[in-house]
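tool_call: predict_structure(chain=1)
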Amino acid sequence: MSKKKKLLRFADTKVFKNVSEPPMEEFFNKEEGTPFAHSLAGNWRSSIFKNENPIVLELGCGKGEYSIGMAKAFPNKNFIGVDIKGNRIWYGAKEALDNEIDNVHFLRTRIDFITAFFTKNEIDEIWITFPDPQEKENRARKRLTAKMFIDRYKRFLKPDGIIHLKTDSAFLYEFTQEEINEHGYKSFLSTADLYGEAIGEFDDFMQKILNIKTYYEELFTARGHVITYTQFRP
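tool_result:
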């Protein structure tokens, strides 16, 4: 993609009504020791969605295929796709605007800052779809299913909320199983080969969700990668 196209898309996302993009200086130009809380924290239903429906969060949403797909399939839920790449978010945001999909919104920020945007019990469900597995040992804390991140999610995920991980990384899949066991999370479903025999075991509701495929999933499966899936509660 040319630099000019990227800049045009960045400009678009700044004015799209379904994208929130807090400036980074809001995080760094604050008094030392003062936790940052965005004005949307606690107000997503009243300010953005204008309803009291459940909110599902997708972390690392990329082009928004999963957020858009779920929003279409489940009009009685609200969806928030989070990613730092504005030129990727542009695709999902534009599709939602063009097709008048009002139950999806996009948040451009680093997942490191995710607790600034939600309050206790505000999120009903979390999806983590094809994140960077961060395989190097010195990047372990950056894995989105590491305890540090799970502890952050627990600050805004409802007590009965579920976390879903979908990845082609056997490394991240195994790491997540280890984290579940080590920290006593409740595991509901885990399969090292989602589209093998496992997918037939899911009910129609779950199959509807799991058959939504992101750009990266299409790419990975075309290359013969095996897709894994984990569902757990912290």
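agent: Strands lie at 19-20, 55-59, 78-83, 104-108, 123-129, 157-167, 186-191, 228-233. Proceeding to next step.
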